[in-house]
Amino acid sequence: MARQLEEQIVGRFPVGRRLRVLDVGMGRGTQALRLARAGHQVTGLERDAAMIATAREALAGEPEGIRERMRIIEGDGRDTGVHFLPGSFDVVLCHGVLMYVEEPDPLLAGLARVLAPGGLLSLLVRNGDALAMRPGLSGDWAGALAAFGSTAYRDRLGLDVRADRLKTLTATLAGIGAPLHTWYGVRVFTDTAANGAHLPDDLETLLAVEEKAGRTDPYRGVAALLHLCGVRG
User: Fold this and answer.
1) SS3 for 186-204, per residue?
2) What DSSP element (H or E) covers 209?
3) pTM for this predicted structure
4) How open is the CA angle 130-132-138, to the nearest 5 degrees?
5) N- or C-end of the chain: fewer Cβ atoms within 10 A?
6) 24 in helix, strand or coil?
7) What's the pLDDT tens digit per position in 112-129?
8) How far, in Å, CA of 227 to CA of 135, rounded?
């Protein structure tokens, strides 16, 4: 996903431009730190105290210049209007958040609001069109059968969450003025890997396969996650 995001940033903005980036639901700050290291001014918004502590600890270990380029705010992604003015950011990330939001449309509208004209909106969502893949490939036939036609599922943490369909999100992005520019699949072949599984010796080859599949039909359509990139009009 990081490679996909970099591709979109490089293709949309002049080389060397320091971008204003907002990472909504930044988690441990992996993507936010990566972009701060690349020279961008990054704001991370997160409500989970444990995640914030982990991100702050990681940031504290970075050189001073990177620490100065990143700030962390405690808050809910649905309250971007409280924290930021319209058009404040060139890039807005919202990765792995929508599945925990029962009504995502107001959140998405808020993200589009703080995005500058021509800015990039990057979403990572659970693929509602392929929910039967994980249970089916794991031999859970009852679970696979129940997944057809549904957008509800239980994640690996045991939480009951929701998925999004590409067609629905495409319409939503058009409606909030950040129409879909392109989309990728994420975790096409690796979604059934066990938590904590050891990385293979041929990791680079694995990543190359996933990257290729994530941009190739029909493979990307059955990926566990969808990476959608919208552009603010």
Assistant:
1) ECCCCCCCCCCCCCCCCHH
2) helix 203-213
3) 0.95
4) 125
5) C
6) strand
7) 999 999 999 999 999 999
8) 21
Q: Residue 103: exposed, middle, or buried by beta-carbon count in 10 A (0-12, 13-18, 19+)?
A: exposed
Q: 223 and 186 in contact (C-beta within 8 Å)? A: yes
Token digits of residue 155 = 């994640």
DSSP letter assigned to residue 26:
-
Three-state DSSP state, 114? coil
Is 109 exposed, middle or buried, given 0-12, 13-18 or 19+ CB atoms closer than 10 A?
A: middle
Alpha-carbon distance 128 to 164, whole Å? 5
Residue 62 burial (CB count, 10 A): 15
> Is beta strand 41-46 parallel, antiparallel or unpaired with respect to 70-74?
parallel
Q: Which pairs from 7-11 meet CB under 8 Å and 24+ separation?
A: 8/120, 8/122, 8/181, 8/182, 8/229, 9/91, 9/120
CA 74 to chain centre: 19
Angle, vertex CA 19, rays to CA 74 and CA 106, nearest 5: 50
- Residues 33-80: pLDDT tens digits? 999 999 999 999 999 999 999 999 999 999 999 999 999 999 999 999
Contact 228, 123 (CB under 8 A): yes
CB 93 within 8 A of CB 21: yes
∠ CA(142), CA(145), CA(151), 5° rounding? 115
Q: Which residues of 114-123 are buried (b: 16+ CB within 10 A; e: fewer)?
A: bbbeebbbbb
